[in-house]
Design brief:
about 140 residues; mainly alpha; about 65% helix; elongated
Length: about 140
Amino acid sequence: FWLVLITIAALGRPMLDENSRTLLIGLAVNANFVFFYGAPLSKIATVIESKASGSIHIPTMIASLLNGTLWLCYGIAVSDYFISVPNGFGSLLGIVQLILCVLYPRHGHTSRESDGSIPEAMFYESIHLPEESAPLI
């Protein structure tokens, strides 16, 4: 797809003026941004079904949210819809993921007691002690 698009933009000079080529590239890049930001949508459905946010990768969510928000602010500042619209969409999806991480625990709804605490047995299972090894002497 990208090879065809670049070929049309580069070789299409006689057929397309500079504004049309810029529009074509801008639309294609924005479609790419929407796919990039929309990738976590399948995980959002999984989180809602399982009531556990363990499938959301927190560093990626934070990076995506910050990236989309900063570029949204820049796009608004320079009045560029090609920048602000897809990054606003990305910010919105990042906020949705953040809300889901706050609403649903990482380990699932069934792993918590009624007061929201972690069961004692599960607490001890999460502690990994080193196994005993043979003496070195």
